[in-house]
Amino acid sequence: MRELLRPVIVAPMAGGPSTPELVSGAAEAGAVGFLAAGYLAPATVESQVRSVSASGHPYGLNVFVPAPRPADVPALERYREVLRAEAERYEVDLPALRLDDDDHFAAKVELAVTYRVPMVSFTFGVPDRSVIRALRAAGCATLVTVTSADEARRALAAGPDALIAQAGTAGGHSATTSPAHHRGKTRAKDILAAVRATTALPVIVAGGVASAPDVGSLLAEGAAAVQCGTAFLLADEAATRAPHRAAITSGAYRETVVTRAFTGQPARALRNRFTDAYSAVAPVGYPAVHHLTAPIRAAAARRGDAGALNLWAGTGHAHTRPGPVATLIANLLAEPR
């Protein structure tokens, strides 16, 4: 496992930013990139895996573990009614509640096995031991994302090769399996120490990392690698939407918040009109809420309206800069002067 890792890992960023070009560029620059299988059709995932695997560099694929069926359907129905004002604002129809969606989990795992993807990481839960065994038999190293020591112990029971310790400062979705109680308060240094105390396996840390001193400090604290996502949202090779890029570079969005408003799963984003209006009333219910808000977000993106977009970003977003992924990686690995 350790031979596959590099000091910096470019995090999987589902919903667009992660591309084969970003992952391949990261590998050529001495880092490791992860493709994001989330939300994509298996055929698209296969195309991306084929593209990246042709380079011969180590890389990874991130897969969402299917969420349990939402327990509080009436709360989702109430939220759907609340969102009618947004649907009217953007002239879209709200879809019916979609309570079952495994994001083609089995098909994506099978693709990883078929193509012998070097590293496969999981988010939103712990895969069954049989999944881990099948991947290992194919030569794939497996990683599970956790947000606490308790989650780490549950993940270790499945037999992964490494853990990803995600702090509350991380941008985008939290991997927490207790979404009703997540507040995003943990820091990278603290979650790294807590998870390392549970295992001798390699522990990768993520959350709010924005500079070379951040990376150096966490490596010195024992991280096997440091995973960064927000730092690469403006990379030339990333497919981050134009309104999202503009929001980050504008300086107008100074604060991040943890919200369930867009997807029903806690996620850290730049504070905007939508987070202000709906964070307090949004229920737990991923991916049902994701499907409810999808047409609103798509319409807002077409209009270039960042006010209703999920502007995922970690607490270090103010340091994010545009440029080739190789330059961004070099900046994160720069020696202190």
From TrEMBL:
Q: Name one Pfam family in it.
A: NMO
GO MF annotation terms: nitronate monooxygenase activity
| Gene3D superfamilies per the UniProt record, alphabetical | Aldolase class I
Q: Which family does it belong to?
A: Belongs to the nitronate monooxygenase family. NMO class I subfamily.
Matching entries from CDD domains are given as: NPD_like (cd04730)
* One GO-annotated biological process of the protein: response to toxic substance
The signal sequence is none
For whether the record's keyword set contains Oxidoreductase, the answer is yes
Q: What is this protein called?
A: Propionate 3-nitronate monooxygenase
Is Cell division given among the entry's keywords? no
Q: Which reaction does it catalyse?
A: 3 propionate 3-nitronate + 3 O2 + H2O = 3 3-oxopropanoate + 2 nitrate + nitrite + H2O2 + 3 H(+)
- Names of required cofactors: FMN
List keywords of the entry alphabetically.
Answer: Detoxification, Flavoprotein, FMN, Monooxygenase, Oxidoreductase
